[in-house]
Amino acid sequence: MPNDPWIALEPGADPAERVRVLRRAHQTFTEAGTVPRPVRAVVADSWRRSARAGVGPDGTASVELTDGDLGAYRSEHPLARVMPLFRELMGTFAADGEHLLAVCDAHGRLLWVEGHAATRRQAGRMNFVPGARWSETAVGTNAPGTAVALDRPVQVFAAEHFIRRVQPWTCAAAPVHDPRTGRVLGAVDITGGNGLAHPHSLGFVQAVARAAESQLALLAPERPEAGAFELTALGRDEALLVTGGRTLRLSRRHSEILVLLARHPEGLTGDELLCALYEAESVTPVTLRAELARLRGVLGPGLLASRPYRLTVPLESDVSVVERRLAAGAVTGALTAYTGPLLPASQAPAVVWLRQRLADELRAALIAGRDPDLLTDWAHAPWGEDDPDIWRALAAARPSAAVRARLTALEAELAAPAGWTHF
């Protein structure tokens, strides 16, 4: 066994003999549920997590994003800004060594897979391709998925992989963090043959990850393009509007109006806007016209037309991003873009309806998908912590004691008589 438990193969060890021992151990685990020596503790723990997540040893990765949806998701991901650095530090090493450079997001989904052409073709046969989900809960033990699950660098050698078709490969990966928040953004990985079981490959990816974090810390926030016209309204009571190179914080009413106009590029009449915005029938058209006049002044000339009220240029919103990804079946991407309920303090009837519909559609997709990582993200968000349907789905997908306890408490609250308070 190696002295460092995070190193897969100690110097001088016979890789072929270790593979034979690991394959016997893997067979023992899949048949009897026990992990014999000399399987490393980090691998044994990962095998157990994989089995609890319902991963089968003969499974395969699923591709969740393709074509334009993949391109849009990658372009918006924070790690896109350090891909040139990854290529500079690892590209030649991967190509010359017949290896692959891979980068995944925080959910273990591969965003980029680059390197030696023949190796890429071989890896493609097991869906080690951009857009495929390689989290532990999807495909079991593997370096990028296990690195983000544990939030630490890890090396996985040959038959240490949980899925059999991945066992000819060896990989090493390290998580990359947002330098400002500490949040895991994803992981950088090197994948190839048994030669990567050397301790240097683990140190290499760890150094690359630290370099990426340093570069992210130095990069100034990206400036919006001068022609951009974008609205951010999820998780905010006052939306942010990017227009003409400026970022503006809108009033609540202006936020509501732009959300509705963004959804209706054909325009809305004054009566339609009145019904969409105001519960009280006593609100007059004069009040609405005054709000629209003020909004026209905020937007600048030529952007807000009347008869019907409409925007003269397309307005992209974070709401439409979530909707597009859901429609494409890209649930992970939709959840990533969903930063909270739409204008949560708004009581405008049309906004309330849209807010609830968007949340319900995303919840339904999460429950149907039964992905424990995504369900956990929703369950631990402020808008999901009291959601019994999500917790039931999570208890089925990941039946830990903590999850079951939370579900029991929620169901007890639901069963309590109205007005009953526990002291």
From TrEMBL:
It comes from the Bacteria. Transmembrane segments: none annotated. Keywords: DNA-binding. The keyword DNA-binding applies. Residues 245-311 form the OmpR/PhoB-type domain. This is GAF domain-containing protein. It comes from Streptomyces vulcanius.
